[in-house]
Amino acid sequence: MTLTITDVTLTYPDGDARLTALDHVTLEVGRGCLTAVVGPSGSGKSSLLAVAATLITPDSGTVEVEGVAVTGQSRRDQARLRRRRIGIVFQQPNLLPSLTAAEQLQVMADRPSTARRRALELLDAVGLSAQAARRPHQLSGGQRQRVNIARALMNDPTVLLVDEPTSALDHDRGAAIIDLLTRLTHERATATLLVTHDRSHLAGADRTVEMDSGHLTGAARTPGAGCAL
């Protein structure tokens, strides 16, 4: 397994008490596998993603990436891990308005000498080679989200974390984004964890788990090419 979340509990202050966002959650995501976590708003999905991304430290439990426990690492080491091993696709693309599609990717590169070539390869992989020189205002919502996905893959991560990627898109564009993420997961052998409240596009997911009030309540699996479950 590439991403392993074990017995994680996360609470937040809530007046004189504490609110439990994640309650002893355990989840494994293998290379080449797209795992979707579905559930209503407030169920704990975003908290799970933040813990997996090392953006929040849980009260207890562990997160491992490629067999290495990362929850006890320093903030500097966690930031280095995110840059080199974890790609994050945020709900909103947050592209820089002055940069072209290719430049959005290039600024993320660990290796500047190959950044331009790598950026163009990834834009081609997400179907945007013809838009490499366009700025965000010249792209559609679906195209901006594709740039967002390509940017997250810039440093060849082993783990890809995706937050509500279809929330601002219509049904057809949303379905195309999920299809793209599934294809890239299989082709690039990433361990992909996707959180969403929209179940309509998940037929192609390798695995779907339900989250309710901080608990993972079920796991439905479908076979996926190269998916290690």
Automatic annotation (TrEMBL):
<keyword id="KW-0067">ATP-binding</keyword>
<dbReference type="Pfam" id="PF00005">
    <property type="entry name" value="ABC_tran"/>
</dbReference>
<dbReference type="InterPro" id="IPR027417">
    <property type="entry name" value="P-loop_NTPase"/>
</dbReference>
<keyword id="KW-0813">Transport</keyword>
<dbReference type="InterPro" id="IPR003593">
    <property type="entry name" value="AAA+_ATPase"/>
</dbReference>
<dbReference type="InterPro" id="IPR017871">
    <property type="entry name" value="ABC_transporter-like_CS"/>
</dbReference>
<protein>
    <submittedName>
        <fullName>ABC transporter ATP-binding protein</fullName>
    </submittedName>
</protein>
<keyword id="KW-0547">Nucleotide-binding</keyword>
<feature type="domain" description="ABC transporter">
    <location>
        <begin position="3"/>
        <end position="229"/>
    </location>
</feature>
<dbReference type="InterPro" id="IPR003439">
    <property type="entry name" value="ABC_transporter-like_ATP-bd"/>
</dbReference>
<dbReference type="InterPro" id="IPR017911">
    <property type="entry name" value="MacB-like_ATP-bd"/>
</dbReference>
<dbReference type="InterPro" id="IPR015854">
    <property type="entry name" value="ABC_transpr_LolD-like"/>
</dbReference>
<dbReference type="GO" id="GO:0005524">
    <property type="term" value="F:ATP binding"/>
</dbReference>
